[in-house]
Amino acid sequence: MKLLFLPWVCKPLYAPFIERTKSKHWWLVTSLLVLGVTCLCAALTSENMLGMLTVVLFLLNLASATQDICVDSLALKILQPDELGAGNTIQVVAYKAGSVFAGGSLLWVKDLSSWSGMWLVFAAMYFLCICLVCGLGLVRSEKKVGWRNEMMPSQSFLNLIKENMNCIFKVQGTVWMVCFVLFYKLCERGEGTLPIYLVDKGVPISKLAFWTGIVRGVASLSGSSVCGFLLSARSFSPDRVLYAAAKLRCFPIFFQFLLISSWGREPIASADSLDVISWDSVVFYLAILSFCFANFCAGVLTTAAFTAMMTLSQSAPEHIQSSHYSLLATMEVLGKLAFATVSGSLIDTFGLDCVFVLFAVFSVLTVPLLRFSPNCEKEKQKPSCDKK
């Protein structure tokens, strides 16, 4: 199933094609159209048609990744440097809120109607978005020259990718940012081992879903909102916010480690013990409190990181800005996938306690890594990589 994320991982490879061919308006409308048509086709299938469902999910991911490139490219062109904090806050908060809403509404609509009805509702939403984009003129349509006309006859699309990659890594601070985004996202996902521990302790799934689902989401959204306020007020730069949030995040993580060490691995006597004042309930709610605070810090980190990424991409030559940001955003996805890929094997091999300690140490190492951060706001000089 991880192959379904392939379009998101390959974004830097086909972003140059999107940048240099049709307009952003064309790509945005086309991606929405593909999403809507794919949902209509999904309405004709059933839940048991696994092969068709896999194709549907792949097309949805491909169209969504293409749309993501267009939206990020528009944000890079529209937002001024002093608007990046507010712009990225809106994007991150809307993305998280949309994920929570879509996840819940998906099951709600399916229960109210049917499998086909659920997909028809989503198709209608995509077609409504097309009407809004076209009818309100939210995105201006500009003419683009095809990439084949832009390059010498001897050049191919592979040469274009190679040329773009060379230009991207000439932008000062790119290598550091790639390493940081990969590392911090891996650490952030590593904090998700606490719910696994709580399941092993015998905490009911319903109770755990509420605290690590809804409450955790609210904490993360609050962190993103606070970060947006700090950045919009121009009180702090993204670098300072990242450094402060990374240091704050160390406290709840080590507090969780102390709680796990004192609570042990033996299952709780009864789920009812969590509803009365007892040693189990005190430790459980302290663990949840630290978990939510860690996710609050993660929300701050994510918003500040995306703002720093976009600031760095705006310092790149204009014709590679979209590809540059797509590369950085892809590193964020790879950080998530890296944890999802290796976490199960690590826990089976070394045990949950060792894995939790490992990611706790990684989280601490994020702080000294930020000490080597280039100051993106002061990087005015662009690399010499002229557009052909």
Attribute tags:
388 residues; mainly alpha; 15 helices; globular
Structural class: mainly alpha
Order of helices and strands: HHHHHHHHHHHHHHH
Average residue pLDDT: 81
Number of helices: 15
Query: Any idea what the shape is?
Result: globular
- For the CA atoms, what is the radius of gyration? 23 Å
Q: Quote the beta fraction.
A: under 5%
Q: What is the terminal separation in angstroms?
A: 39 Å
Helix content: over 70%
- Major sheet: size, sense and barrel closure? none
Tell how many strands the DSSP assignment holds.
0
Give the low-confidence spans: 145-154, 376-382
What does this structure look like?
With 388 residues, the protein is mainly alpha-helical. It contains 15 helices and no strands. The relative contact order is 0.15.
Give a quick precis of the structure.
The chain is mostly helical and 388 residues long. The chain has 15 helices and no strands.
Secondary structure: elements and pairs:
Blueprint: H1 6-9, H2 11-20, H3 24-43, H4 50-78, H5 84-112, H6 115-135, H7 147-150, H8 157-170, H9 174-190, H10 193-200, H11 205-232, H12 238-263, H13 279-314, H14 321-350, H15 352-370
Helix pairs in contact: 2-4, 2-8, 2-14, 3-4, 3-6, 4-14, 5-6, 5-11, 5-13, 9-13, 9-14, 9-15, 11-13, 12-13, 12-15, 13-14, 14-15
